[in-house]
Amino acid sequence: MIVKCIANRINFIDGLTKLGRELRESTGVGNHQLDITIGRFYVVYGVALRQTGPWYFISDDLYNYTSYPIAYPSALFELLDEKSSVCWLNKYQAKEIKNLQTKADVLYTFTEWSNNDMFYEHLVNGDNEVLSVFNQKKLFMDMEFPNPSCNTRAKILGEGWVQCIQCENAWELKSCLGMLKCPKCHTILLNPVYLEKDKSI
After folding, report:
1. Global pTM?
2. N or C: which end of the chain has fewer CB within 10 A?
3. Cα separation, 103 vs 106, whole angstroms
């Protein structure tokens, strides 16, 4: 799943609505700018369906410092590719909150997170084992579907081979994912075979 940011300020969402209140409580930044960039594309690593609607777990602009995804309401994004990852399962969770009401979430994400109520907490706390699992899944999902931020595709040579247009290295294509990484220069490329297959569906 890939989304495009269309708004990055708290006041984009009416503060009097339930979603507006939840967003302000979860971020604590008032009317300031959030750590997402308008026009930027983000891979979604999990979706929480809450009473206020879907929230997307993405690697926001501070991910290099935090090393864990943050949930943002879907109202801040345009959904570009709605296909969910092959890794995803769903889990229903009922969580108690301060006013003694129940906030019900359905969490769509990969198995290790979906099956472990403490996974995200351990991720935020920097647990090495959990970080390793997330990084492996993130690496896969980042390459799973064609990303609109990349406009360079590998060249098809025929008989199952492709070529990097940056370094002209050729290799046998064994990946069925939407993105490729050149094994020589590590350039990220669109998988032309995936694009043709996706177009024919």
Report:
1. 0.86
2. C
3. 10
CB 82 within 8 A of CB 3: no
CB 191 within 8 A of CB 180: yes
- 181 and 189 in contact (C-beta within 8 Å)? yes
Which tokens hold the place of 51?
């009473």
Question: Helix-strand-coil percent breakdown of the chain, rounded to 5?
Answer: 30, 35, 40
How far from the centroid of its chain's Cα atoms is residue 113's Cα?
A: 14
3-state secondary structure of 32: coil
Q: How far is CA 121 from CA 41, 73, 96, 150, in A?
A: 26, 19, 16, 32
The one-letter code for the residue type at 1 is M
Query: What pLDDT, in 10s, does the model give residues 43-65?
Result: 999 999 888 889 999 999 999 99
Closest CA to 15 of 25, 1, 5, 3: 25
Q: Where are the domains of the chain?
A: 2-144, 155-200
Q: Which residues are paired to 49 by β-bridges?
A: 54, 106
